[in-house]
Each structure stands twice: as structure tokens, then as C-alpha cells.
Design brief:
This protein is α/β, with parallel strands linked by helices. It folds into five domains: about 10-85 and about 200-275, Rossmann fold (3-Layer(aba) Sandwich), CATH 3.40.50.300; about 95-195; about 290-340, no CATH class; about 365-430 and about 600-630, no CATH class; about 430-590. The protein is about 50% helix and about 5% strand. The protein has a four-stranded parallel sheet, sandwiched between helices. β5 (about 220-225), α10 (about 235-245) and β6 form a beta-alpha-beta unit. α5 (about 125-150) packs across α7 (about 170-190), α5 crosses α26 and α26 crosses α27. The longest helix is centred in the N-terminal third of the chain and has 25 residues, at about 125-150.
Length: about 725
């Protein structure tokens, strides 16, 4: 068990490098490292490579494999697809296309089920509004149901058998099972699987072929698992099989389990593993990250919750207890000893501010203003106090928001105030701007005869410093406008020698001697891109991306967009450029989930004096000198009290028939019904029990999320 700031990634990377350097591997063997996110994969891989190269003078990328759970499952299934009934050329459906397919099926089927599902609506509300809200959110509920069913290794046929004879209380499960069945049929028709299929299929392959399992066990004699507190049942089962219950190192912190609500992940898996008699526990309890006051604040949150929280059910949110068998106090962060070469920051530098106004309800917009500029502890005031420091000596700072939408609003406010910032949100401003630029170019290429948009394309491609010059020089703006007005059609622009007055248009540049060459570069690019419109959409995007992007992250982003649009083209062979432009519009406006690359390739490093905007979930594993935590209210962090609001209890859903809850949590209820059916005990389902338990589970997880937020701060 590893407390925040104890160096678990450092420890894992050095352990992997040591196993490789100590010649414990045969030529065909590897150390397997399994972690939670793609960014963690890249960060751990970069660390191991650096240690092997600099410390052991070995080849940096030999002897180990770093994977997410889905990446590992893909490796296993791709090598032996026939074991699980897949063709050698099976494809993995892009996440967006997978979600779209499930949503489409829900929309197609909901009309025939409308009357049966209406029993879940609150009769005290406007039924028409309630119906609209319910059907708007129903696809997401069904998508999570399908994911949960796959995590429990339940296929549609098994669910239909379990539903046989079940009463009308289970109609929502019936509806979801029919959508699940239609969705799996659509995957089979495409010869595809989705990401959730990969893990259960990989586990099935290992169970069906003992010879294949033995070969993989020999290939990966050492397995290191990162973020083990978020391990799911499938991950637990897969790694147990692959390891053969030996040489399996698990690193995690149960007090930082923040991905458990409505999933099969559970920190109990790690804790049970640690209690096994054949397991040796090496606690990482010392942390040099934070000043003593912040360590004490985090420890007090865990201690108070465990021993004094007014809701007894929440006293199990943290693991803050002595282990009688091993004499270990789990969950207690210890500062470094006095002679440690990397001591905790000086506690005299601390600044802890709690802004609590019980008598004043602070609106979200007002809270943004308070954090940015309206208090003496605000970002603006603090950054102004740093002006005498060199930029590279300024402290790092982050604002941690409850959800991405709040982060986007904060980023816009920072931009208007001229405060430097960068984002770790669902898609960053840089991602959205890069996608928007590609969208603008493709939109023009889809209708090049429209010369009104040609100047807009030129403006979009202009570097920021040149754009600033044009904005501040009215004569330059008029010159560019006059040049574009003189081109009567696209041919005059592309091939000026073919027109009567096209050959000397650049003479209009006047004193701006850089303008002719700039316009000529623009012309050459437009010629090349218009010719490239004959290529498939992914090759067109790659061609444009190589010409307009210079940063590695933007080139990588163009590649990812090309992959996404290639998948869209395969699923919509009738699409032409206008349809792909619309798809990019959806991505750039952030209406669908699309992860940009930014610093994920090497791991994110906060920049001095630049505000990082991130969700608390995205901040896990990172640290800053100064941290602002927003929306720490009983809505964002409920305490399982009767007066607390809960995000999962929707206004349009009716209460329980026994009046225990005012609004049922439909997601909790439908998953409880699913598990009762799987257990063969539908009578064991009691309405509202799941809603009440969901309050407890969510409140526990949010307390742990607050703990994560607190421990991101150094000073």
C-alpha cells in the first residue's frame, strides 16, 4: 500500500529495470507492467527506458512491456482470436462509434417500450417534460448497463434466460437486454468487438487453452500492477491467471480508490490480496511531497471519517487502521525523517485557506470569479506577487474543478483575464483549436468555389504573431482584403498565369515585403490539398496535418483524427467531405468525447507560473505547489445525510413505493436488478435499497476524491 507522494511510480520503474538488469529474464521473456491509463503507460515506459539507459547502460526499450488492461487484453486476443470465435482480421470498434451505435439502437427501440417504461416517471411532474428528460438520458443508462453486464461476463442470451418469468419490475432490464442483443449482433455483422469485449474475451482465451496460458506465464515471469486499488474483478482474475499466483507485485492506495461507483472495481480486492498468508507487504508510507500541515490535513480527513463521521456508513470510506498481524498503520501519511535527502517542504511556507460561507449560497459563476480575481488569495493576486521572480523559478499552480464543463468556463475566464493556463480536461483548448483548424480547411475544400471562405482559411492558418500584427495594422488588413477581392474565382488564385490580371496581383503588397512569399506558400498548399481531396479521408487529413502542424502533439492529434475519420468512412461509405466536416465540428465543440494528445506521450509536467486547469480525477498522480479545490459543497461531496442532494437521483424519476426515497437512482436500481437476476434470486431485489446504497458508495468515493485533491498540493 502506497500513500500519496511516496514514489510508487518511481519504485515500480526501478523494480522493473532492476529485474531486467539483474539478468533474471531469458531472451524471450519480459517484465509485464499493467497500469490504468495511456498517459501512465507512456510515463512509466519513459522512466524505465531512462533508468536502463542511464543507470545500467542497457538498451532502453528491451525486456519489458507496459500496457493498460485493455492494451494487454488486445495483445492476448490478437495473437489467438480463434480461441474466442473471432476472425484473424477482427476489428476493434472505435469508442465513439460504439457509443453512437448503442444510442441509435436505444432511440430506435424506445417507442415500442415507452408505455412500459413510463412507470419510472414521477407523476407529480410535467409528464411531457419528464418523458423528454428520461429518453434523453436513457441511452447513457443503457450503455452503462451493457458495460456492467460485460464486466460480469453476461451475454444477452444469459440475461434473457434469467429474465424468463421475472415480473414487470424488471422491464428496464428487459429493454436494456434487447438493446444489448441488437448491439452485439451489429458488432458481429461488422466482424468487430468493442473495448469492453476485449477484456472478457482475453480472460476466456486464457481459460480455454491451458497451453496458451502457460506460454504467456513463461513469457511474463514478473507482473507489476500499478493503481491496484482500482482493479476490477476481470483484471484481478486475468492477472491471477497470468501470474500463476507468484511474482505478482501490486502497488496501490485504497484511500485513493476513485473509480469504483457503478463499476466492478473495488479496493477490497487489493486489501484481500495483502491479507493472503503468502503475500509480503512492503508499505510505502513516507511522503516528501507536501508540507507537514497538508499531510496533517489529509491524515485528519481519514482519521475523522473513520472514527467520527456523523454517518456511520461512511466510516469505511478510508482504510486508516493498524494491521494486527503485520504491525502496519495503513493509510497514515508519514513525513520524511530529518536526515532524508528529499525532505518535505518547509512548513513555514504553508498557506491553507478554507472559504466557508454557510449563510451565502455561492453560484458556480461567482465561485469562478472568486478563485480568479476577487479575493486576496485569488490567482490574479498571487501571480502578481510573483512578478519579481524569474519565470522558471515561479511555483506551479492548479485549479481542480468538479467536472470538465466547469473547467472550460474557468479556462475562458483565465483567457479573458490574460492569465496563462493549460488544460488537463476531456479535450483541451489546444485539441479543440487544432480540430477546428482541420474542420475549417476541410469545409473549404468541400466547396472550393466559395471564395468568401478563402480569406478565412488564410486567416486561420496565420501564425499567432502574424495575426496580431494584422489585427493592429489597419493598412495591412485593407491590403489583404483588396488582394482577396481581386481574385474572381479559384483559378485566378491557384494559377495566376492563366488569368488576365492574376499575374501582378502580388504587386498590391506594397510595403509588406513578406506578404508575396506568404501568399505564394498559401497558394502552393491549397493546390496540394485540392489535389489530395481525391485521396481517402484519412490520407487527406494526414497530408494536411503534415503541412500545417509543427508540434509533435499536433501531428499525433492529426493522426488520431485520421484514424477516427477512417473508421467513420468504413461505417458510412456514402459520406463525403461535408459529412466529415460535421463530424469534426462535433469534436471541436466538445459534444463528444475525444481525447487529445498534448503531453500524454511523455507524462504531464506542470509549468512554473502557468495555471493548470484539471478535474480532480485527472489530477491523480500529479502535484503542484499551490492547489485550488472548487465546488467542495454537499452537492459535489455529499455525506450520506438525508438533506444532501445526489447527482444520480433525477428530478423526473418517481420515488420508491415505500416512500424511503423521493427519487430513485435508476442506474443503481437497474444494476441491482441485473445482479439479482444473475444470482438467480430476483425476489432478493427490493426497490430503493440500491438507491440508498448508491448514496453511501458515492459519498465514500467523493471523500476519497477530496483526499486526492488535498494531497496534490506541496505547500
Amino acid at each position: 500500500a502506497a500513500v500519496p507522494g511516496s514514489g510508487k511510480t518511481f519504485t515500480l520503474a526501478h523494480l522493473a529495470a532492476h529485474l531486467i538488469a539483474d539478468r533474471r529474464l531469458e531472451a524471450d521473456q519480459e517484465v509485464l507492467i499493467v497500469t490504468f491509463t495511456n498517459s501512465a503507460v507512456n510515463s512509466i515506459q519513459a522512466r524505465i527506458a531512462r533508468i536502463l539507459r542511464d543507470q545500467y547502460v542497457l538498451l532502453p526499450f528491451v525486456g519489458y512491456r507496459v500496457r493498460t488492461l485493455h492494451g494487454l487484453a488486445h495483445d492476448i486476443v490478437r495473437e489467438r482470436p480463434a480461441l474466442v470465435g473471432l476472425a484473424d482480421d477482427f476489428v476493434i470498434l472505435d469508442e465513439k462509434l460504439s457509443l453512437d451505435a448503442q444510442r441509435d439502437i436505444v432511440v430506435q427501440r424506445v417507442a415500442e417500450w415507452r408505455d412500459r417504461l413510463a412507470v419510472y416517471l414521477d407523476p407529480e411532474t410535467n409528464m411531457q417534460s419528464a418523458q423528454r428528460a428520461f429518453e434523453h438520458e436513457l441511452p447513457d443508462l443503457v450503455i452503462r448497463f451493457i458495460k456492467h453486464a460485460k464486466d460480469l461476463r453476461q451475454d444477452p442470451d444469459t440475461l434473457f434466460a434469467a429474465l424468463d418469468g421475472a415480473d414487470s419490475r424488471f422491464d428496464l432490464v428487459r429493454f436494456a437486454a434487447h438493446v444489448y442483443d441488437d448491439y452485439q449482433r451489429s458488432l458481429a455483422y461488422r466482424g468487430a468487438v468493442d473495448f469492453d469485449d476485449l477484456v472478457r474475451l482475453a480472460l476466456a482465451a486464457l481459460e480455454r487453452d491451458s497451453g496458451y496460458l502457460l506460454r504467456l506465464h513463461n513469457q511474463w515471469p514478473f507482473i507489476l500492477e500499478d493503481e491496484a486499488q482500482d482493479s476490477s474483478r476481470l483484471q484481478e482474475d486475468m492477472l491471477r491467471l497470468l501470474s500463476g499466483r507468484q511474482n505478482w507485485v501490486r502497488v496501490g492506495d485504497p484511500n485513493q480508490a476513485i473509480n469504483t461507483t457503478f463499476t466492478t472495481a473495488n479496493p477490497r480486492f487489493l486489501l484481500d490480496f495483502l491479507e493472503a498468508p503468502q503475500v509480503t507487504e512492503h508499505p510505502l508510507s513516507v511522503s516528501g511531497r507536501s508540507v507537514l500541515s497538508i499531510i496533517e490535513l489529509a491524515n485528519e480527513l481519514a482519521r475523522w471519517t473513520t472514527r467520527e463521521h456523523p454517518s456511520p456508513d461512511l466510516r469505511e470510506a478510508f482504510y486508516y487502521e493498524a494491521n494486527s498481524r503485520r504491525g502496519i498503520l495503513r493509510g497514515h501519511i508519514q513525513p520524511t525523517p530529518a536526515d532524508d535527502p528529499q525532505p518535505n517542504p518547509d512548513d513555514a511556507q504553508r498557506e491553507i485557506v478554507l472559504l466557508c460561507r454557510p449563510d451565502l449560497k455561492i453560484a458556480p459563476e461567482k465561485e469562478l470569479e472568486i478563485v480568479v480575481a476577487e479575493e486576496d488569495f485569488s490567482l490574479l493576486a498571487w501571480l502578481e506577487s510573483l512578478q519579481d521572480l524569474d519565470k522558471d523559478q515561479r511555483p506551479t499552480v492548479a485549479v481542480l474543478v468538479p467536472e470538465n464543463s466547469r473547467g472550460f468556463k474557468l479556462a475562458e475566464l483565465l483567457r479573458r483575464r490574460g492569465i496563462p493556463y493549460e488544460e488537463l480536461l476531456r479535450s483541451t483548448t489546444g485539441t479543440r483549436e487544432a480540430v477546428a483548424l482541420l474542420q475549417t480547411l476541410l469545409a473549404y475544400l468541400s466547396d472550393p468555389a466559395d471564395l468568401r471562405n478563402l480569406k478565412q482559411v488564410y486567416w486561420s492558418l496565420m501564425p499567432a504573431d502574424r495575426r496580431e500584427q494584422v489585427t493592429g495594422d489597419i493598412d495591412l488588413r485593407e491590403t489583404i482584403t483588396e488582394i482577396f477581392k481581386r481574385w474572381r474565382n479559384i483559378e485566378d488564385f491557384l494559377w495566376p498565369g492563366l488569368s488576365a490580371d492574376g499575374t501582378d496581383l502580388l504587386d498590391l503588397a506594397g510595403e509588406y515585403d513578406w506578404l508575396p512569399a506568404d501568399l505564394d506558400d498559401f497558394r502552393q498548399n491549397m493546390r496540394r490539398w485540392l489535389i489530395a481531396t481525391n485521396l481517402p479521408i484519412d490520407q487527406l487529413v494526414l497530408t494536411i496535418g503534415q503541412d500545417i502542424f509543427t508540434e509533435a502533439v499536433d501531428v499525433a492529434l492529426a493522426h488520431k483524427i485520421a484514424v477516427v475519420l477512417h473508421s467513420a468512412a468504413e461505417n458510412h461509405p456514402d459520406w463525403r467531405l461535408p459529412q466529415f466536416v460535421e463530424e469534426l465540428r462535433v469534436i471541436s465543440s466538445n459534444e463528444r468525447r475525444f481525447i487529445g494528445f498534448d503531453d500524454a506521450g511523455t507524462g504531464y509536467e506542470p509549468k512554473p507560473g502557468v495555471v493548470t486547469v484539471a478535474t480532480m480525477h485527472a489530477a491523480k498522480g500529479l502535484e503542484w505547489d499551490r492547489v485550488y479545490l472548487m465546488a467542495v459543497s454537499n452537492y459535489g461531496f455529499p455525506s450520506a445525510m438525508t438533506y444532501d442532494p445526489y447527482i444520480g437521483e433525477k428530478w423526473y424519476v418517481r420515488g420508491s413505493l415505500d416512500f424511503r426515497v423521493l427519487h430513485l437512482n435508476l442506474e443503481a436500481e437497474v444494476l441491482a436488478q441485473l445482479e439479482a437476476l444473475i444470482a438467480g434470486n430476483p425476489d432478493g431485489y427490493s426497490e430503493a435499497d440500491a438507491t440508498l446504497q448508491a448514496r453511501v458508495d458515492y459519498s465514500r468515493e467523493r471523500l476519497r476524491l477530496l483526499y486526492v485533491g488535498i494531497t496534490r498540493a506541496r505547500r
